[in-house]
Write a structure and sequence with these properties.
Layout: H1 3-14, H2 20-27, E1 35-39, H3 45-52, E2 56-61, H4 64-72, E3 76-79, E4 94-100, H5 109-118, E5 120-131, H6 136-143, H7 165-174, E6 177-185, H8 201-213, H9 215-218, E7 221-228
Parallel strand pairs: 1-2, 1-4, 2-3, 4-5
Antiparallel strand pairs: 5-7, 6-7
Length: 232
């Protein structure tokens, strides 16, 4: 499959449509003056938000369409296929590395993580969001003997890899990254994940509180912040 062509078509169809709550959660961990790399930035919506906060942002992207649109936003960007190459930056180049719900769309997530950690400075922050395959609805599907591919859920057909909070902690530990903050987004807009009654009124308010308290069970997307271990 030509993933670059797939995501050219994807960005053409969906434009700049992102979950604003997730972008806010990611952006709050970036400070003015931070040197930031966003890996696989798509059309550059989050990168632009970080630039407006005063961060110095560089980005990469797989698709030509995403690269062109991010560049039009003023983002300094390089076109990189993380499944077939390395990040074109020296080791320990950035104070912050950000990955917004893109690692699950690639093939070689081990290489993806290795490269992100390599270019991160010791003591730097790794900020990542991934769909939560341990969401209660996914657990129910598996308990009843199913794994349906549902659009906008952790089992979306475009997801090639699947992660839980426990998995991410273990993958980071193998690479010298310590989790320092864990939260998640409910993403109540996901119609194929939640019945209509859960997405409105008091039920939605209660669900948002549950998500904040137990993201590993109730969040559609996990949002994690880690710190790279200082060199010995």
């Amino acid at each position: 499959m030509n993933l670059a062509a797939l995501y050219d078509a994807y960005w053409e169809k969906y434009g700049d449509s992102f979950d604003p709550q997730r972008l806010t959660m990611l952006a709050q961990h970036v400070q003015p003056g931070d040197t930031v790399l966003q890996v696989d930035c798509g059309p550059g919506v989050l990168a632009q938000i970080l630039m407006e906060k005063g961060a110095r942002v560089v980005a990469t992207e797989l698709s030509g369409g995403g690269t062109r649109r991010a560049s039009a936003r003023g983002v300094a960007i390089a076109r990189v296929d993380m499944d077939s190459g390395n990040l074109p930056f020296p080791s320990s180049s950035f104070a912050v590395v950000v990955c917004d719900s893109r690692m699950e769309h690639g093939i070689d997530f081990g290489h993806y993580l290795d490269e992100c950690v390599r270019v991160l400075k010791p003591g730097g922050r790794f900020i990542i969001s991934v769909p939560n395959t341990a969401h209660w609805r996914c657990r129910w599907w598996l308990l009843t003997g199913r794994f349906p591919y549902r659009v906008g859920t952790p089992t979306d057909w475009t997801h090639l890899r699947f992660f839980t909070l426990s998995d991410m902690r273990a993958l980071w530990a193998q690479r010298g990254v310590e989790p320092i903050h864990v939260t998640g987004t409910a993403s109540l807009w996901a119609e194929e994940l939640y019945p209509a009654w859960m997405r409105q009124g008091r039920a939605s308010s209660l669900y948002l509180r549950l998500t904040r308290a137990w993201p590993s069970l109730f969040a559609r997307d996990l949002v994690l912040v880690g710190r790279k271990r200082q060199a010995a």
